[in-house]
Write a structure and sequence with these properties.
2 copies of one chain form a homodimer.
Chain A: E1 4-10, E2 23-29, E3 38-46, H1 50-54, E4 73-81, E5 91-94, E6 101-104, E7 112-114, H2 132-140, E8 151-154, H3 160-171, E9 175-180, H4 183-192, E10 197-200, H5 206-213, E11 218-223, H6 227-235, E12 237-245, E13 259-261, H7 263-267, E14 271-274, H8 284-296, E15 304-308, H9 313-322, E16 328-332
Parallel strand pairs in A: 8-9, 8-11, 9-10, 11-12, 12-14, 15-16
Antiparallel strand pairs in A: 1-2, 3-4, 3-6, 3-16, 4-5, 5-7
Helix pairs in contact in A: 2-3, 2-8
Chain lengths: 333, 333
Amino acid sequence: MTATNRQLILKSRPKGLLAPGDLQLTESPLPELKGGQALAKVKYLSMDPTMRVWMVVDTYFPAVAIGDVMRAFGFAEIIESRHPDYKKGDRVTGFTGLQEYAIIDDSVKRQFQKVPKIPFVSDTVFLGVLGINGLTAFFGMEIPQAKKGETLVVSAAAGATGSIAGQIGKIQGCRVVGIAGSDEKCSWLTKDLGFDAAINYKLSNWKEKLAAATPSGIDINFENVGGDIMHTVLDRMNLFGRVVLCGLISGYTKGDPGLESFGTVLVKRLRVQGFIVIDFASRFMEAATQLGQWKMFGKLKDRETIVEGLEKAPDAINMLFTGGNIGKLIVKV
Amino acid sequence: MTATNRQLILKSRPKGLLAPGDLQLTESPLPELKGGQALAKVKYLSMDPTMRVWMVVDTYFPAVAIGDVMRAFGFAEIIESRHPDYKKGDRVTGFTGLQEYAIIDDSVKRQFQKVPKIPFVSDTVFLGVLGINGLTAFFGMEIPQAKKGETLVVSAAAGATGSIAGQIGKIQGCRVVGIAGSDEKCSWLTKDLGFDAAINYKLSNWKEKLAAATPSGIDINFENVGGDIMHTVLDRMNLFGRVVLCGLISGYTKGDPGLESFGTVLVKRLRVQGFIVIDFASRFMEAATQLGQWKMFGKLKDRETIVEGLEKAPDAINMLFTGGNIGKLIVKV
């Protein structure tokens, strides 16, 4: 191989939204493949709000080091292999990073997983409904142990995770209300996904609309946003409600973390469970099987926003925080 | 009876600490006892931070109405009865209010409970270790399902509830670290109550001391305070830690509620459970029996700060927020 590899390198830690130059596009020749290595051509990259977090702070992973290829989850195909476990044509998902080619060896092998070719289904499902978002929604919606007829409110409901969490809520028999940032998103939620109601939080009277859409209060909050949206939802929660704290994206691009009051949690005896899907890794296959069945039988619908070109990834990350995407946001490399 | 009844009436809702006149002492003649009524002489009044909350907002009880006798839990003795269920000499605990005499009839009867005379034990235990504080600590410490060897941190640890919660933590086999506001309080916690460590949060280096006292991190937080103290504790919590959110007293005298970040809850996958003891009312007798045994066998120690005179109750309430009491704060009427 004498191909070049284009990569997005973390050059500086963003303050708010990503500024030009925080991620820098570089080109370098691909090194010759050594024994024990496989070369994967990255086809699709998953754009996730957590990437913004990885740019600045340690979480369950250390923050990406300045000068390193930006961490990202992707779908790739093996195009050359000197590793016994991989052969040309194998398809994998895993932490490819924001680059055109990824090299897999034993040191990173456990970050990758082979995936099958499913007839009539786009490979991108492994980044969305059958991937990290589907798994997050699946395990997240186990936590509250929803009872039939309870009211579930999902924030960032038109996002990749929220849209699935809400549909799982319907499968579980909940009344499901989504919060999203445009009438188009809300219409998708109610008309296509079967949400009982959807509220556009950019309308000045959205709090009244949320109240009207949750006449019996809110029993479960699948929370992705934090800040004022979370506050408003908590205020309408019923005693002994459960909050699945999956994301706080309204704070990810702010210097200060989003501050909310624990007072409501106390007075309403809520249970707030912080949640990161990685803890459920041992059950991913079980969940993916269930998600796949639901998808096959039309119980789970998904939608993608696809941005073309690795060089567009920084803008794509920003879209997650400005509301630019509906459903799963993917960069096609 | 032609005795007069002294009462503390809520005249205005306090902004910060209680100001003179928020509770106004009044004297009025006791009305003649009617059929179906019993007259109770209030002996001791329990001073609890939640009283400050009752003065301003609805919780599980409506806020006290302006002009009403201030709500308070107390110990009283029946001195005259025209109610079939009470006889002279009966001893009760319940919502007596901040007054010298309370009239019990069927409309308020369920707010009162008869208590026995226990040899060698002060009647005030029914307001503390065998009362609302003991029950709160008992049920609150059921929530985290502590495992032997886990580290428990209790804030407001020298208060009536915190001091018992910490001792129950010891009974459960935890390493117990208390946070309190003076060296004297800390010394009581470690020397008398058997806490493994106690940190005076008024020392400038208290955060380093907390870190040193929790070398394996913190697994359980029995939280009574909120604000900076809670933040500091959450920062040291281990993954999958549990927070029993029992009180947020640092915010009770502020116009703004205490604001804390949910970010740590998410990243560390903590479980925060809002908790009010009233939900466990059906099991109070079971808990009081256990608490009584522990006390009898010396496994639970308590301490009281007693203030004499009903008219001192407003100052006593303020003491709860300025750190003036050690252990249970009681007004002797």
